[in-house]
Amino acid sequence: MNILNLFRYWRTVLTVGQITLTNLMNDGFILFAVFFQPMIIALLALFMLKDKGADYGLFVVVGSGLTGLWSSLLFISGNSINDERWNGTLESLVAVPIPFEVIVFGKNLAHVAQSILSMLVAYVLAALFFGYSLTLSQPFLFVISLALTVFAFVSFGLLIAPIFVMYRSVQQWQNAMEFPVYILAGFLFPILLLPDWTTPLSYILPPYWAAVALHGTSTTTLPLNGILFAWAMMILLSVIDLVVASRLFTYMLYKVRVDATLEME
Amino acid sequence: MDAIEVNHLHRVYRAVIGVIRRSIKEVVAVGDISFAVGQGELFGLLGPNGAGKTTTVKMLTTLLIPTSGDARVGGFDVVKQANEVRKRIGFIFGGERGLYWRLSGNDNLRYFASLYGVDPDISKKRIPALLEMVGLTGRGNEKVGGYSRGMKQRLHVARTLLHDPDILFLDEPTIGLDPVGAREFRQVILDLQSQKKTILLTTHYMFEADMLCNRIAVINQGGVIALDTPSGLKKHVSDLSVVEVETFGAASEAIEKVRALSFVDSVSIEEHDQRQLLMVQTQRGAEAVPEVLAALDGQRLGRVVVREPTLEDAYVRLVGGNA
Amino acid sequence: MHTLVVNIRLFWQGTLLSYIALFHWLRPVTYTASKILMPLAQMMFFVLLGTYATSASNINFYVIGNAVQITAVSGIFGVTMSIGNDRSMGTLPYLFGTPANRFALFFGRAFMHVIDGALGVVIAFMWGVLLFNLDLSNTDLSALGLTILVTTFSTCALGLLMGCLSLITANVMFINNTVYFLLLIFSGANVALDKFPLWMQTISNLLPLTRGIAASRLLVAGSSLESISPLLWQELLIGVVYGIIGYFMFAAFETVAKRRGTLETV
Q1: In a domain, C24, yes or no
Q2: Which of B58, B99, B103 sits opposite A19 (nearest CB)?
Q3: Residue A150: inside a domain, yes or no?
Q4: Is residue A265 part of a domain?
Q5: Using the beta-carbon criterion (under 8 Å), do B61 and A258 form an inter-chain contact?
Q6: C235 occurs within a structural domain
Q7: CB-CB under 8 Å, C170 with A172
């Protein structure tokens, strides 16, 4: 998108985000995606990695939090345009002077920010249930990494939603897209375990760099230049995502007005 | 300058038919429509289902791209200058969808105000005023899911006025409302007109169009077949009178017999539970009654009345009679 | 005799309907592909995570556990959706307005998913052999097939019970996702049960899948059908119990809903 629009309409982005959060509060599935699923995955991973010792506690917390972030991005942000169509509000949203992608950005921001909760849930679980003491090794850098992660995920989501709107056949793969990203992004185990040919795939996924930065700053495994590189990659990929998303949105908004698919049949 | 100018709008839908052998079928929704609406005018668009009313409104509200032809709203092209158009228009598509039911009325309005770029200070004052105007004062904090259908439709009016648009498109706004709700809604429309808003209204209810509209375009099969004031349209049928016959379960053969009478212009039927109202349009007036009754011989009949034609009769004649 | 024919037909119609409903959303090609690829993605994730957590020598433990676990995709998601759809599509009042045998109506909805689920597990085992070097040369394959069928049956029975819950609560997706992921933990597909605290082990033993997974692991390691048959009988019993509870809940739901007039609104 025209990234300047995000600054120009920052107030709208925030209002949309805030109202989206209010709207989500009553949705049981959201509760599952944000709260239960990452908790269950965290619990499972904590049991599975129990023999590796307490050092892995924080790794599991961050990793399972990331699975929650990806799942809610895929299922909630991925459907954020289709949901409006089912709700009958898409027409009203398209026919406002604010660019549509700014609105969807605001919605995705709410989804992703809310998913950060899933990391907190995993943290509490590891601390209470397993009695691990969990301290972030580089809290300041971790917070910056988290902020960049949110931005990178939101931008990535902006790419997914219009594709799901335009190509229903792609959306049917939604369920099959959940675990491959868990694997390729190295949320809970290093991608070194994977065959070499998958590495480039990992590199173009913003969630991979988010995992690098967050794992690297929560435990002391990554030197500063490695962290900076992961940050740079997140920013670069976000910018690319936003530019491509902008084209996709323009094309989508043209296509739906030609095909008359703004409204649900 | 006219508020709305429509020049030869044409719109085709492509529908994919079949699952295995896919073929594309083209359906013409709007053939060739032209009309103009003046500033501050309340303009009606009438026509049977599938005549192209909603398609026309959606093209004018920038939600559909015309296949050919062009239109200007508020002086701006609806395709090339869509965003300028959007700043100046509001629209309602009848029915209760299109709101966030899990949010309160206030939150719905606050949300759309921010999407129209209304300054928060202004919207803070405008939202309560609009709620009052549509009769929802004190209900703003309730979730929309709990509103009645009429309340939802009135909230739509408030929603569409948030950015104080000059031009409003109301597509069958009273559809599905009970008589009291519909009457209240019509009052809201009249209030809007008194605020000098330009309004394009589509409706199925003839008395509604007669009561509200300054001018009416009747469209059928994708084209404008008449465009006049309500009284002008009625002149189309000034030569006619209408024989209304109440029947109870009349056989369709009997009705066909009436329809076949040489002096009968058209016959329309209104169903009311057990009884039907046959409206026989004819130039003969009261003299037609005996022969009409003769054709209905053997049917159970009620009241018979001969009356002056209404806008509905004009409409029925225009769209081809046997509605 | 006539009643039997009618009920068999009813059973089949429920079966077909629940499948058609599925295909209404998924195109056949996509369905087939997702039947093959989705299990692979999930298996890969847990096998990689498991071998990373312990050691590569444990690979069979994770491959078998997750292959059998795949049955829950049909057993939980498929079955709950086929019941839940009646509610969301508003067809429930019409269904309850018929004199149809509720037993045939209810279990018909699960039948196709038993076949579908068992097929999913077979495909998952195939991935195990192709990608994870799973060795089935010492395995009594017909016994393994029987184990898969029994396990799928008991999982679908749980699915039926959960489907009934979805008739009462607002969100089917919430229920079936939660159950699916909880099974992932408690079934012992990824964690040896003795690593759990006692209360968790108790829950595991009350759920379907647990014994089916254990039996499958023993069979692959070379055990005979005879030695694992107690596990199978227990698995079957669990399925029957869940099925019966589910059926009575279904019947109770109908009564309550009719009394309160909440068929559509609950």
Answers
A1: yes
A2: B103
A3: yes
A4: no
A5: no
A6: yes
A7: no
The one-letter code for the residue type at C98 is: T
Q: pTM for the whole thing?
A: 0.81
A262 and chain B in contact, CB less than 8 A? yes
For the stretch C136-193, pLDDT in tens is: 888 889 999 999 999 999 999 998 888 887 777 666 777 788 888 889 899 999 999 9
Domains of chain B, first to last: 4-233 (3.40.50.300), 236-318 (3.30.70.1710)
CB contact under 8 A, B111 and A97: no
Q: What are the residues of chain A with a beta carbon less than 8 Å away from any beta carbon of chain C?
A: 27-29, 31-33, 36-37, 40-41, 43-45, 47-52, 169, 172-173, 175-176, 178-180, 182-183, 188-190, 193-194
ipTM over 0.85 threshold = yes
Domain assignment present for residue C265? The answer is no
Q: Could you tell me which chains touch chain B, where touching means 3 or more CB pairs under 8 A?
A: A
User: Are C30 and A190 within 8 A, CB to CB?
Assistant: no
Inside any domain, residue A264: no
Mean pLDDT of C214-223: 93
User: Quick check: B280 and B258 in contact, CB under 8 A?
Assistant: yes
Whether residue B22 is predicted with pLDDT greater than 70 in this model: the reply is no
Between positions 116 and 155 of B, the ones with CB within 8 A of A are 116-117, 120
Looking at the domain assignment, is residue C69 inside a domain? Answer: yes
Domain total for chain C?
A: 1
Q: C25: domain range?
A: 2-260
Has residue A189 been placed in a domain?
Answer: yes
CB within 8 Å: C53 and A48: yes
For residue A146, the SS3 value is helix
pLDDT tens digits for range B182-212: 888 888 899 889 999 999 999 888 888 888 9
Sheet holding B301-307, edge to edge: B264-272, B275-282, B241-248, B301-307
List the domain range (segments joined by +) for residue A21: 4-259
